[in-house]
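Interim report to the steering committee. The following record documents the input for V-type proton ATPase subunit G (117 residues).
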Amino acid sequence: MASQTQGIQQLLAAEKKAAEKVAEARKRKARRLKQAKDEATEEIEKFRQERERAFKEFEAKHMGSREGVAAKIDADTRVKLADMEAAITTRKEPVIQEILKFVYNISPEVHKNYNRK
């Protein structure tokens, strides 16, 4: 009977030891996963920063600075507005005369759908 108790004690001790090893393995796995996640996040951030820097260089090289683009758009707008003003001043009088001609030259006619009873 003592040998049975001793055997059960050994089995319980072995089971406890195995459970501790499994728990420790799970903890190591969780630590490795967390470490891998942190490393991946860090690598992603470095990659994002590198791509952002490359994009800014590309943008500066091909488009100039944002202030330069805004200034160019502003200058183009001023030129177009000046062109429109010049077109208005040159075409204003003939257009007004054409409109007045239509207003003054009215020929009264009875509409074709008018029905005299």
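The mean pLDDT is 89. The committee is asked to note this result when reviewing the revised timeline.
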